Amino acid sequence: xxxxxxxxxxVEYESVCVDSDALDAARLMAEHKxxxxxxxxxxxxxxxxxxxxxxxxxxxxxYVIEDPTLAAVVDEQHADRLCQAxxxxxxxxxxxxxxxxxxxxDPDDTALEVAALMAQVRSPLVAVAEKAKDGTHLLGVIxxxxxxxxxxxxxxxxxxxxxx
Amino acid sequence: xxxxxxxxxxVEYESVCVDSDALDAARLMAEHKxxxxxxxxxxxxxxxxxxxxxxxxxxxxxYVIEDPTLAAVVDEQHADRLCQAxxxxxxxxxxxxxxxxxxxxDPDDTALEVAALMAQVRSPLVAVAEKAKDGTHLLGVIxxxxxxxxxxxxxxxxxxxxxx
Lengths: 164, 164
Prior knowledge:
The structure is a homodimer of 164-residue chains.
Chain A: H1 6-9, E1 15-17, H2 22-31, E2 36-40, E3 46-51, H3 52-59, H4 62-66, H5 76-80, H6 91-94, E4 104-105, H7 111-121, E5 125-132, E6 135-143, H8 144-153
Parallel strand pairs in A: 1-2, 4-5
Antiparallel strand pairs in A: 2-3, 5-6
Helix pairs in contact in A: 7-8
């Protein structure tokens, strides 16, 4: 059985730029029910993962996050104005100060190398990017569940293994 | 516009019991491409979220996680034996020692209360459960992206708002 490489497991994933409009990014997550977006820097290199929960944190007024019991007494009029928090903001403004850059693997890395990195950083996805002289080119991502499918599939333990 | 409650936003979600077979749980995640599973305790109460990345951590030998460069030299024969790590193990054995119990909301909590909790704990999902005399009954979960859809939808900022 040939060695499975990162490039074989790579799937497309919605990404936005740090300079993209924050409200557009929130809409993209909401409409496609995405748990997060991959954020690229000005040069198109993976910079961060923006989880949907972080976008919610930006939307919810700070005094409500500090004391969630206040949420029950904020009237609906105020709730309607929540997304004004995103008006005029960029995706870069919404990133958590502590957001780590996403783990990045090389397209030639083996499935086990990807698994080791994912296990180490406990990330639900890794970015797959090729390093070239003119910068880093994003190919897509590998999700933890897709990789799990590959690792289990190799041993024929999946009932729906293709071609089985 | 009537106040939206947690029960209105609740969706079904795949769950397993702490006593479920670990390999079955891994297969469930892999086949349905789930980022994680909700784990219930013996009484059916939400106990933890088991992310797919944690399951990968259980599969990958410890010496490879400590030194991912070893992954490149582990031959394919060994990779084939990875899922033996799950044989005879229970879901409870796979949980991280530091796994926090999932945030739980009441079906009557408002969307803003749910948002405040999600923002506070930065969880991609919260469990919705009803407390009764005979214990806690799970109704389902609310995902961050679904909640984001609700919060943005209220203000008509989504192009695909139903009935718009």
